[in-house]
Amino acid sequence: MPAALLILSLAVHLAWNYKRLNVLRAELVSLVTAVVVFGSQEFFITAGNGVGSSVPFSTIPFSLGLAESTYGLLFLLLMSWPSLILLPLGAFRRLSGLHGPFLILTIFCGLVPTVIGVYMVSPITVFWMASFPLAITFGTVMRANSRRIVKSFAILMLIFTIVMGFSFVLSSPEAPTLYLSLSQSFVQYFPNGYLQSTVPLSQEGNLIALLDHAIPILPPNSTFVVPQQFYGLALMSQNPNQVRIVNAGQIGVAQNTIAPIPVNVNVNPITSLESMHGSFTVWWTQPNNWYGVSEFPSGFHTWLAGEGFSIFLIQ
């Protein structure tokens, strides 16, 4: 998607400035090169089972498309309003080069297809790319507008953006900042804390320590059914007893969201592990509602307790 939008932006930029073609030779070379590389990937490399891409395409009712576009627009406003409000202050008129077409096409491709009932990807997925041209707006406003009040306002927005960025970098999902807590409506796309992988960063060391200790002492040839969230960490541990480590898929409860078209994520309830009698699994020692799990099945029995996490025998 970013490559396609950039190529389209180059084409629009060249078409708009066709009278200055002698000046735009570099852009023309870039466009031709990009089209050749993109086309080669799609039609030749993909045909040879290489890396390729495809865009899902479906039609949706008008009301659903309008709701999805509105949802995406709310996301764009929540995440980018400090840059967006600078556009009327001269940035929109003087976005140089490809930044103007790129921004316009990004917003167009994020809103219009779903409004007319064509669904390819979520508008939010498209709007992530608006960060590239919007990052140019600060310098553009500073250059295009000489009024002190405007420059002061732009600097204030820059400071606010930096503060919010640092607050996100330092935030934990266990204690999100007030502003980031607003992103709960977009939980499928935006975590409410940066210091996490599949578990809070403060707890990851405890989980790794438990896996490193438990897997080497599990009974030989036993089965360790690991939720997908912890599967990669489990594969990193020594396995001298040839324990069979099985990916159980993502365990949890589908999260509530106001998204009109939820992201299709296959989530298995923790009760799906009950059928694996005689196997072992791993989870938090006490259900804490992470991934929506608030209680254990009756067949879970603690086999080895760690700090925050435990190995359970399924009976």
Can you summarize this structure?
With 315 residues, the protein is mostly helical.
Key words describing this protein structure:
single chain, 315 residues, mainly alpha, 3 domains, 12 helices
The tally of helices reads: 12
Task: Give the uncertain stretches in residue-range form.
Answer: none
Structural class: mainly alpha
Q: Helical residue percent?
A: 40-55%
Protein model, in words:
It is a single chain. With 315 residues, the protein is mostly helical. It folds into three domains: 1-54, no CATH class; 57-196, no CATH class; 201-314, no CATH class. The chain is built from twelve helices and seven strands. The protein has a three-stranded antiparallel beta sheet, with helices on one face. It has a two-stranded antiparallel sheet with strand order 1-2. A two-stranded parallel ribbon has the order 3-4. Helix 12 (228-235) links the parallel strand 3 (223-226) and strand 4 (244-247). Helix 1 (2-16) packs antiparallel against helix 2 (25-45) and helix 3 (62-84) runs antiparallel to helix 5. It starts with a helix and ends with a strand. The mean pLDDT is 79.
